[in-house]
Amino acid sequence: SIAAASIVAKVIRDRVMEKYDKKFPEYDFAKHKGYPTKQHIEAIQRHGFCEIHRRSFKIKQLAQGQ
Predict the structure, then answer these.
(1) Of 5, 16, 34, 53, which has fewest CB within 10 angstroms of its CB?
(2) What is the CA radius of gyration of the chain?
(3) How many CB atoms lie within 10 A of CB 29?
């Protein structure tokens, strides 16, 4: 079903983000899974974007901080 596929996709994505957390610990991907939480936005403001950040998204808070 679509619901089951959605859950599987989220679990896989969460695991991928946990691996990225080991490669880029300064962003704390294991906690926010890449979503634009306050903590994540502050990490980007401190450290800049890393290779996995999608630059196509315009986050208002980032524009104010950079």
Answers:
(1) 5
(2) 13
(3) 24
SS (H, E, C) 1-66: CHHHHHHHHHHHHHHHHHHHHHHCHHHCHHHHCCCCCHHHHHHHHHHCCCCCCCCCCCCHHHHHHC
27 neighbors 21 (Cβ within 8 angstroms): yes
- Please name the amino acid found at residue 38: K
pLDDT by 10s per residue, the chain, length 66: 899 999 999 999 999 999 999 999 999 999 999 998 999 999 999 999 999 998 776 666 565 555
Residues in the chain: 66
pTM (two decimals) = 0.77
In this structure, what token pair is assigned to residue 48? 């800049």
